[in-house]
Amino acid sequence: LALKVLDRNGKGKIASLHSALQAAAKREARVAVVSMGQYQLTKNEQKQLAALVESLWKEHHMLICMAAGNNGPGLNTVTGTAALPNIISVGAYANPFMWDSDYGWKVERSTLWYFSSAGPASDGTMVPMVVAPGSVVSTYPMWADKPYRLDEGTSMAAPHVAGAIALLMDAVTHKLYKNDTMAVYQALISGAERLEGYQAAEQGYGAINMLRSWMLLRDMKDDTIALGAYQFTPDFGYGQGLYSRGITPAQSVIRLENNTDTNRQLAIGGLSEWIKPAQFSMQLPQQGQRKLLVDYEIPEEPGLYSDFLIADDMETPGVDLSILQTVIVPYKLDKLKDQKLEVSESLKAAEFKRYFVQVPEEASSLSLNLAVASGRARMHVVSPSGWQDISNYAGQGKTLTEPQVEIAYNLPEAGTWEVIVYSAASLSDFEETQSQYTLQASLQDVQPAVVTPPDDRYLVSSLPRILRPGEKNLISIGFWNSVTKTAGEGAVMIDGKMYELRNGMVLLPIIPTTDTINLTISW
Hints:
The protein is α+β, with helices and mostly antiparallel strands. The protein has helices at residues 14-26, 43-59, 96-103, 154-175, 181-190, 200-203, 210-219; strands spanning 31-34, 63-67, 88-94, 111-112, 130-133, 135-139, 148-152, 227-233, 237-239, 242-245, 248-258, 264-270, 275-277, 281-284, 289-296, 303-312, 321-329, 331-332, 340-348, 352-359, 365-374, 376-382, 388-390, 394-395, 404-410, 415-423, 434-444, 458-463, 473-481, 491-494, 497-500, 505-510, 521-522.
């Protein structure tokens, strides 16, 4: 069933997508695949589309596969249509066989395509949810030189997932003699295999694996359940996960929601050591909510930290709830010697590495330089507000290629910049297996920061008054609305780390060296 929502120029309206999805549901379609480059949605469009998708999910049991977008490899570059609940968003990857058979290049392991948009969404939601092959010989517009050609994109990956779902649904009907779309969904994500060298924000659950999913589906004994989660994200508010870009979290509160008519006993855990839930089990009442306190021990090493906090009813199939936690720790350029970062590393063919640099207010310029000693590589640069630059390749090439490339910005935007070094997939053409490079990032003429005191939003109190030196003390810091005197809400910064308020309070464990301490607090 093919439904056209775009005109001959590739333009269309969200209302047309609504109509097409509703028409497909009326014709009893159980899986849909959508590929649209709609990177920005208004709040009203987002709300309306999310409501439609939820109704199709609940009432018609329709699974919707959505291309994550081709605006990668930077983080938070996914399309607005893919960054919605109840959507199976799909990124693109290639394995060594695909690289060799499609392009004749020797690549050692499975890699994400450089163009595949990465998550998370601005509210912390996991996007993409899975990844699938991103290249295929497919039909092409009639104005092209031939009707079929090899093409790449997440628009190629999403149909792979829709096809996998259709095959699993057919097997469920004809081999297991039941009709359970939600079981197929759970088997699809539980059977996915994580790609080595990539984190959850980049690949979601991983690459789909039909055999693993079928084996899980075949052995399922119980129904899947519906759980929800809400968590505070800086610069957004409350969403479905944590995305903190340049702000290190110390404590957060996750609101877990049970949308079933049965009490659930959940096992809770973080899949990485830096995610520390305060409890490892929780009784979640039917149609009820409870709060979960999470502590974070983020390493000081700059980089991307992204993994799941899970809440799982052990008596149901698969993992019932995976809450994406994504934290970026940047290099603070103004704190480095000569306000300059220099790293020398190597990457194999089709691999990339992310670097994050924090640019302060009032810097006059930011310079980025990539020198390639062997191999072939380039830079992808993403500003704090999301616009992108791509450098030329440096190193070896079939045409004249310089040994280094540079991008400079006058009066650069303050905040966390992302610089991705990408090693070309075609290294085998030059009899190379890796790219060796040196990346430099430097600031010029940084003015001293102007420190402004916070507004008088809160009255602050603390207990105990006297501390025990050399012992662990639990300090209770209260934040009260200065006008209403009610408990504060939201998050505050204490000594450079973010704490979410619980009933207006922060509990701060500390081992002081004297009977007094000084804390820097802001909001």
